[in-house]
C-alpha cells in the first residue's frame, strides 16, 4: 500500500523508536513503519519518555506515547509511514519533525475495528507549526 510513497531516502535512513516498556500500541506502530517503509526499526525502552521528548524538542501540546528519530528528524506518535516518506523526500525548510498528538483511534497502531477519529499530522520546527497532512 505504501510502496508508491517509499523513496530511497526512506529505505536508507535508520529508525530508532523510544517507548515506555509498558506501551503496546508502540509496537503496532513500529510494525506499520517496518511494513510501510520497508525499514528496520530499533526499539529502545525508556522509563523516562518525558526526558527524551524534552531532549528532542517535542512541543508539549504535540506529545504522544512514542518518539522516533529518523535521519535527523523527530517523529512523535502515530504518524503514518507515507507522511514520513514524504518528509524524507521533500525535506521542507524549517521542519525538525512530525507529530500526531495523543493517540487517535484509526491512526497507524491504534486501529480499533474500523472506529476512527479525525487527526492531523503537524510539522514543527524553527519556522513554527503547520498542518502537514489531515485524516478525516
Number of β-strand runs = 7
Q: Please trace the helix and strand order, writing H or E for each element.
A: HEHEHEEHEEE
Enumerate the strands of the largest sheet in spatial order, edge to edge or round the barrel.
Answer: 2-1-3-4-5-6-7
Cα-atom radius of gyration: 14 Å
Brief synopsis:
With 136 residues, this protein is of the alpha/beta class. 26% of the residues lie in helices and 27% in strands. The chain is globular.
List the helices and strands and how they pair.
Layout: H1 8-12, E1 15-19, H2 25-37, E2 41-45, H3 49-56, E3 66-70, E4 73-76, H4 81-90, E5 97-99, E6 119-125, E7 128-135
Parallel strand pairs: 1-2, 4-5
Antiparallel strand pairs: 1-3, 3-4, 5-6, 6-7
Please characterize this protein's 3D structure:
The chain has 136 residues and is an alpha/beta fold. The protein has four helices and seven strands, in the order αβαβαββαβββ. The protein has helices at residues 8-12, 25-37, 49-56, 81-90, and strands at residues 15-19, 41-45, 66-70, 73-76, 97-99, 119-125, 128-135. It has a seven-stranded mixed sheet with strand order 2-1-3-4-5-6-7, sandwiched between helices. The radius of gyration is 14 Å and the shape is globular.
Write out key terms for the chains shown.
136 residues, alpha/beta, seven-stranded mixed beta sheet, 7 strands, 26% helix, globular, disordered N terminus
Amino acid at each position: 500500500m505504501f510502496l508508491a510513497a517509499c523513496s530511497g531516502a526512506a529505505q536508507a535512513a535508520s529508525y530508532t523508536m523510544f517507548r515506555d516498556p509498558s506501551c503496546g500500541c508502540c509496537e503496532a506502530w513500529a510494525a506499520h513503519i517496518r511494513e510501510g517503509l520497508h525499514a528496520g526499526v530499533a526499539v529502545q525502552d525508556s522509563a523516562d519518555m518525558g526526558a527524551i521528548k524534552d531532549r528532542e524538542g517535542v512541543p508539549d501540546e504535540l506529545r504522544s506515547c512514542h518518539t522516533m528519530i529518523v535521519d535527523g528528524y523527530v517523529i512523535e506518535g502515530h504518524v503514518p509511514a507515507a507522511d514520513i516518506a514524504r518528509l524524507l523526500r521533500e525535506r521542507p525548510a524549517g521542519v525538525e519533525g512530525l507529530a500526531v498528538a495523543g493517540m487517535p483511534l484509526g491512526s497507524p497502531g491504534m486501529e480499533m475495528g474500523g472506529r476512527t477519529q479525525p487527526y492531523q499530522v503537524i510539522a514543527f520546527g524553527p519556522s513554527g507549526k503547520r498542518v502537514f497532512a489531515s485524516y478525516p
